[in-house]
Design brief:
- The chain has 3 helices and 7 strands.
- By secondary structure, it is α+β, with helices and mostly antiparallel strands.
- The chain has a domain at about 35-145: Beta Barrel (OB fold (Dihydrolipoamide Acetyltransferase, E2P)), CATH 2.40.50.140.
- The protein has a 5-stranded mixed β-barrel.
- Strand 3 and strand 4 form a beta hairpin.
- The longest helix is centred in the first third of the chain and has 28 residues, at about 5-30.
- The radius of gyration is 25 Å and the shape is elongated.
């Protein structure tokens, strides 16, 4: 074999090994990939049957129903075009509210009900998961308009304001030695 043929054989073996390693990595990651679908995607049959995926949308006002066991809840996620009923056994996040964005992870049952194993809620009044915002835009709804299905305005539920630190609604507390501050 000439030196040129040896180099060519070495490059070919290297590329083959790289291809095999890449294929193995992608195969191993395939089971851990979690895809996001909107209620419209699910209604169109794009979501996988029998496999876990994420379903995102807005929690429809008036749809939250708690069962007598205290842990099982049912609610509806919508993208303003389609609605999917979600069943969840567990404690909902503190920021979970009707009229707000949420993402549920789980499987779609044969009955059309989504059995969630995890529920994620937005964490402040300005945040909406990017997947939910994109799904709303595709449905012809502007997520920044403040109007959400179910009649609730954007922001805090019931028109409440955020009185967290740095909010213009936070009352100023004077600092003095009496209340533990230093002058």
């Amino acid at each position: 074999m000439t030196p040129r043929q040896k180099r060519f054989a070495l490059v070919a073996v290297g590329l083959t090994a790289l291809g095999v390693v890449s294929a193995l990595v992608f195969y191993a990651m395939r089971g851990n990939m979690m895809f996001f679908y909107s209620p419209s995607d699910v209604a169109q049959g794009k979501a996988p049957q029998g496999h876990s995926f994420r379903l995102g949308g807005l929690v429809e006002a008036g749809s939250l129903v708690r069962q007598s066991d205290g842990l099982t809840v049912h609610f509806v996620l919508t993208d303003t075009k389609q609605r999917i009923t979600v069943s969840y056994l567990g404690i909902l996040p503190d920021m979970f509210r009707e009229g707000q964005g949420a993402v549920a992870q789980g499987k779609l049952g044969a009955d059309g009900m989504f059995a969630a194993t995890e529920v994620l809620a937005k964490h402040d009044e300005k945040y909406m998961p990017p997947e939910v915002a994109d799904a709303l835009k595709r449905a012809g709804k502007d997520p920044s308009s403040g109007e959400h299905p179910g009649g609730m305005p954007g922001g805090m539920p019931g028109g409440m304001s955020d009185n967290g630190p740095g909010s213009p609604n936070t009352p100023a507390i004077p600092v003095s030695p009496e209340n533990g501050g230093a002058l």
